[in-house]
Amino acid sequence: MNNEEPSTKKNAQGDSHLNLATASLRRLLEDKNLPEDVRNTLKDDYTQVQSMLDKLEHGHIHIAVFGRVSVGKSSLLNALLGKDAFSVSVLHGETKTTDFHAWDEYADGGLYLIDTPGINEIAGEDRERMAHEVATRADLVLFVIDGDLTDVEFRALKTVTASHRPTILVVNKADRYTDKEKQQLRTVLEERTQGILEPENIIFTTAQASRQTVIYVDAEGNEQEGLRVRPVDVQALKTRLWAIIEHEGKTLAALNASLFASNLSEEVGKRILAVKHELGLKTIQMYCIAQGVAVALNPIPVADLVAAAAIDAGMIVHLSKLYGLPMSKSEAGDLLKTISGQMIVLIGTTWAVHLISTVLKLGTGGISTLLTAATQGAVAWYSTLVVGRVAESWLANGKSWGEAGPKFTVEQILDSLDRDSVIAEAREEITAYIRKTVKN
């Protein structure tokens, strides 16, 4: 029989999740297989990873407020803090960037409240991006409204809740409604957010004290004018926040950190692959130039084919290092044979031209030799481009052709390239290079 207290179990589980999240972020930061040029390109992403890691190691919990301009986001945070820490203005759009302050009321400390700009002052795509960023960086979200949800608010709410962070829908300025009106509004909101929010996470608040003019009848039966002050009321929100934080404990930050680590790892992975692809294309282009010129200037028949194979194999080795999947020259040669074999099947005529051009080199002179050499070099350029693209695709897929096999991959690459256009451009560049070389 296990006599462990539930809270002890939760703390142990929270520590475990926290360790997993921290380890995941550290792996991102300390990945030795990542090329330095790729790391430099992703500098901002890694700064974000480091900030998140610092947050986890200090045990901080971030509570972000989100909503339209003028719903009272900053006022709500000030009411929770019990002081005017966040800027409040009668003008719309006072909060231009995110702002945060420590909330010392919680016994264990480490709580931070974060203010954000109004969602209705940001264009659609940027609004969607900000909603996603707020949700993924915060451990808990206060989504503030002051009435029924608008379409813009509802879409943003769905984006926030889709990130699986605890979200409280805060109906601010509740002093404007009678008890009956509040109940009607609650019913409407519960219906609209069914499947998105739990009913207990819809909380009514009054973030700023307000004065109302009232008419009353005095003891003599005369009507009199007076003032009634409606005080700040955020106690229901505090109670709900404490309940969530106390119930979840370390698990709240740890689970959200795990989600953050997983999402960011996936995103950084995509970015890394995109950067590697871009660098791969530049590498392939460099080898295309080297291949085209080398073949065009090589006067020995057939030998240029041997030289071409060596250059292509070198390119494959270079690409494999870029993708962190190093290969030997022998392995690169085997891959090149596989790719070339499929290319011969699919574009045999190109290789026929390649061989004929080699022979024609011996029997022509002057400008004809130049054009023939440039043509052969352009064909070599094109073949290297295909080989490079196919090899890069294989490496990006983790040294795998996938279920369709090499033929499908080669065919896809061939279909994506305009052969005539590539060869024409390559011939022009090679011709210009040869003429410049001869002139010098």
- What is the annotated CATH architecture of the largest domain? 3-Layer(aba) Sandwich
Tally of helical segments: 15
**Sequence stretches where pLDDT stays below 50 over 5 or more residues:** 89-96, 354-368
Which band does the percent of strand residues land in?
A: 5-15%
Largest sheet, spatial ordering of strands: 2-3-1-4-5-6
Instruction: Indicate how many domains the architecture comprises.
Output: 2
According to DSSP, the number of beta strands is 8
Question: What is the arithmetic mean of pLDDT?
Answer: 77
CATH topology of the largest domain: Rossmann fold
Largest sheet: 6 strands, mixed
Structural class: alpha/beta
General description of the model:
About 60% of the residues lie in helices and about 10% in strands. The protein has about 450 residues and is α/β, with parallel strands linked by helices. It folds into two domains: about 35-200 and about 235-250, Rossmann fold; about 275-440, no CATH class. The strands form two sheets. Strands 2-3-1-4-5-6 form a six-stranded mixed beta sheet, with helices on both faces. A two-stranded antiparallel ribbon has the order 7-8. Helix 7 (about 180-190) links the parallel strand 5 and strand 6 (about 200-205). Helix 9 (about 250-295) packs antiparallel against helix 10. It is elongated and about 115 Å long. Mean pLDDT is about 75; it is low at about 90-95 and about 355-370.
Structure summarized in a few sentences:
This protein has 440 residues and is of the alpha/beta class.
